[in-house]
User: What shape does this take?
Amino acid sequence: MITDKVLKTLEYDKMLDKLALHCGCCVSRELAGELRPMEELDDVKSELALTAEAESYFLRTGYSPVDDFPDMRSSLKRLNAALFLNCEELLNIGKCLKAIRICREQLASLTLEPEGTANGEGGEKLPMGLASLASGLISHQYIEEEIQRCILNEDELFDGASPALARIRRNKRIANERVREKLNSIIRSSTMSKYLQEAIITIRNGRFVVPVKQEYRSNIPGLIHDQSGSGQTLFIEPTSVVELGNEFKKLLMEEQAEVERILTELTAMIKPSAGDIYTDLLTLGRIDLIFAKAKLAKELRAVQPGLNAEGRLRIVRGRHPLIPGYRVVPIDVWLGREFTTLIVTGPNTGGKTVTLKTIGLFTLMAQAGMFVPANVGTELAVFESVFADIGDEQSIEQSLSTFSSHMKNIVGILDAADDRSLVLIDELGAGTDPVEGAALAMSILEELHSRGCFTAATTHYSEIKAFALTHEGMENASMEFDIDKLCPTYRLFIGIPGKSNAFEISRRLGISDAVIEAARGYLKKEDTDFEAVIADAERKRIRAEEEMQQAELARQEHERLKTELETERKKLETEKQELRLKAREEARAIVADARREMERLIVEIRSIKNIDQRAADRIIQQERDKLRSKEGELTEDLPMLRTGDGKAPRSVFPGQTVRVLSLDKTGTVLTKPNKNGEVSVQLGIIKLNVRLDDIRLARDESEESTSKKIEYNPAATVGLELDIRGRLVDEAKPLVDKYLYSARQQGLTEVNIIHGKGTGALRTGIQDYLKHHSLVRSFRNGNYGEGDYGVTVVTIK
Assistant: This one.
């Protein structure tokens, strides 16, 4: 059990105030004020899981699914006793129904991956906790829409709420115009206007009247409905408009009756669902409270703590949520593993009390389903009871506690504390004789420790420090104090008892050395030795901390240099590849120039009539073969240079996605490799046979694309011939088209298309295609030595 007094001592109520600021509706603000820590581990885990879901949803969408709505719970409670609700109440219930519907629609589709599955495979998606809550909401859209259709604002219905109301209001407007028209003729009349106090039309008791001077009352016959305060003006309904006024009055009563009938009808629609709507409003408030916890977690930069029921507590870089962020000093504290009792010592205003309150408040927040402002790795225990005796002497708002009231709190703790309790005691044993106070404090700590309580206490007594050192399961801790600056650093160190700094502080404040030395003489030798041990441990701790900082700086410098060297290595490798690529491209350009020059010479040689053409063709073909061989050597690994370190697959399987390097297209493998190392690949509507060394697996291609510097350009690698043997005409045409464009970009003027002899169908189809190609100047069958009718020689424009 956790009492309200403990909640107030640990400032839990102030956290609820902060939580309420993030609530978006009246119900959730009420629930925030009533929120209390839970005591069962499973309940706490479920509540924190809901907060985690809300945080994920809020970070993803940026808003809460619960819109603000008016508090209509009292109206819903009295709905059965009421004949009908007024326009304002019905309109507000419509707003509530809209909020219920929107929340259900927003959250009902949320799903959670089942445990033990990856990427949603192997199991059906499960509804999340928020989705389960939202699925309990009932949509009453038909009622919501009917309210919106009928009610114009908080005081008025739409004319179209019913045919009868539309007819009545139309007649009422006509009657109103007729009455005003009659009265206007009276006030504009030169005969009658002199009897009027003012030339206006007004209404008294629902009747149209004109203001008549008292002395002329007999000059305007009619019914007197009112008079002015002075009695000088009478408000008379002229006889000529009484009948019209009666008609207008009748229409007013008919309108009121029809409005009440419509309101009664709308109320009757709501009555059967009033209980469900009331429950849904409470559910909306609960959902909004969960989202308020998520918003608070974002504000505090809080994390979801781990939980256990064994009393283990570990706070990593914890920040008290009520201390401004620019002032708070994070602390690391743990309890419940190697020790269950923690004794914190240190100077006044050094942060001891804040440490106790941080431990207690974090525990309460977690058990209420709130995240805690700490770092990842924080773990908290779920306790059945939390006790706190904290007299904040540093707060100007808190008066000093007397020893008797302090002991009264301790008595209450000793009566109820057990092994499922967290006990926090500030300045244990203070307010009485130091010797007796220290003895009493040690006895209380030993009693709590023997019961298995998880205890954190603060003290100034050296005897308690020594007591903790000699008892298993107890540990000392200290708040650091900067002697040079004469101020606390608020940093907590577990394992080292706090050293008394009274003499050093006094000396720096001006007390003479003689007085200080005299004071040392009054200390017992064991006290002096104990303080010396603590001082030595403190010096070693500071030196170790400095060495750790230096080691961390050295590690960071090492990582920086390593990163720089790796970046430089990659840069050099890239430059090396680019230089190799550039050199080969330049060599190919030279070969291409030589090829063009050779073709020019061939044309001239063939123009000579007195020469053996067959011998010349043989020599020309031999030179062409040499040139092709040289060109092949320069281009054989060019695609590999351009695509990085990608390797051709040894084999592929039907259905795999591959990239064809020579065409720079991605397709799907249709067959396994044949004996010639070729596979059939589907590229869009075209099927091609492609060699294994001309393809890359699409996955490898995607991995390489992040690091390669130069992309593959097929125009830079075309040869002097294109082999399309074995393909259909429709398959070959796109290849021929792409090849001709690439050859032209490279500056080639004559190329060979190898289609084979066979039946001649492929040759005929390709030559028909070339007749109309925009890049083809002319073409011919190959000569002897060029392939005869198995080759078409194309001259490019």
Q: What stands out?
A: The chain has a mean pLDDT of 80. The longest strand covers residues 474-482.
